[in-house]
Amino acid sequence: MKTKVGLSHEPKRKLPWVVYWFGQPDDETGKQRKYTKCFRYNREAREFQTDKQTQFDRGGPRDMPADVTLGRLLDEFWDARVSGLSHSSQACYRNTVSQLREHFGNSRPVRLIEQRHAETFMAARKRRDDRPGSLSGNARKQHLKYCRAIFNAAVEWRYIVRNPFLPVRSSGSSPLRAKPKSRAWHHLTPGEFDRLLAAVPNVKRRAAYWLMYGCGLRPGEVYNLTLDRVDLESRRVYVANLAVTNSVPPFVVKADGQSADTKERSVPIPEAGIADLTAACQQAFKSGGFVVLSPERFATVQRYWRLCRDGESWGGRKDHRPWLNRDMMNNLLRDTKAYLRKAGVDLTALFTLTAFRKSFGQNHANAGTPSRALAKLLGHSDVSVTMEFYNRVTDANERAVAQTMDRLLGPGDKRLVGT
To answer: Which domains occur in the chain, in start order?
Structure first.
C-alpha cells in the first residue's frame, strides 16, 4: 500500500508544486484514490509535505473527509456544544454562527474552507449596528475564539484535517494572529476610593463597593451574596452557587473563559471594610438575607422572578429570557458615576462596574502579590488572564522602577570619585 507523501514540480501549472498521496483501497475496486494539493512556492509545498507525512506516520487518516456542509457542521455544533450553555453565551455564539452562514453559505463544503478564506472572513468583520467606528479588538477576538471552537469540533469529528482558523505559519499581520488592543480603563486608586466612600450615604452601597474593590468580587457575585456566605469573625467572604427556590432566583458562579463551569472560592475581607459590611449584614434580614440588596429591590426581584419562572415577560421586556446574575442589580453604574462626580473623581478612561474588580487586581499586582495567588482570589481559571495586570505599565510602575535604580546606583557624582 502506498503511504509516502510525494512532491512533484509541474512548471506549466499556475501552482507548479504538487504534493500528492494515496488513500485507503476502495472496497470494490481495490484501487487507491489519489489526492493532491498545489502550491506556488517550493517552501510551502515541502512544509505541507512534511506535516502530512508526520500525520500519516502517527496513524492519521489518509482519505479526505466526506463533504460535510458548513450548515450541517453549524447545526451539529450547536446541538452538541452550545445548547447547554448559558443564555448570554448562546447569544454570543449565535452572532458568530449567523455571520459564518452569511459569509460562506450553508452549502459550502467545510473541507474547502482554507486558511486564506478564514483570514478573509476575519478581515471583513464590521459593526452590525448603526453606530460609527470599526469593530473593536475584543469583538474580533470573540469571533475568532468561537470560529476556532467550531472548526476544532470539525477536526475532532474528522470532517476536516486541520482547523483553518489556526494559522500554521504566518506573519503578525494575519487577522488570525493579530492580538486585539485592550481598551483603557480607569484605575481607581485607594485615595479615589476613599473619596467615593465619603460621598455615599447608604451603608449597603458602601458594602457593595468594598466587596468589589476590596475583595475583587464581580458585581453579579456581590448582589447575589447572602448572609450565610459572609464570615465576619474570620473576615472572609465565600462565593458559591445559590440554589433556586420559588421566591429566590438561582445564582451560578461564572469563571473567566468557562461559560458553564463553576469557580467557587473564598476571599479575605480587608479590615477597613468590616464596619460597613457588619452594618449591611445586620440589615440583611429585611432583604431576604441578601447582604447588599435594599428591601425595595428585593421585593422587585421577587416579583420579576415569579414572572420569569412562569415564562412571562418581565422588567419592561417584550420577550421572555432566562434569569441572569446581573438581573439582581438596577441602575448601579448610573448611581456610581454620580457618586464619583460628587466625590470629585475625574475619570480618565472607560469606567464600568468591572473597574472596581480590575482595580483590585491592579493594586495587588503593583504591590507584588504572586500572580497565582491573585488568580485564585479573582477566580480566574487561567493565570494568563491575571497576567494582564502585571503587564500593564502605569505611571506609578515607571516611577517605582526609576526610584529602584536610584537606590541601587546612587548619585552619579559619588560614582565618579576616584576615576
So the answer is: 6-57 (no CATH), 70-156 (1.10.150), 190-382 (1.10.443.10)
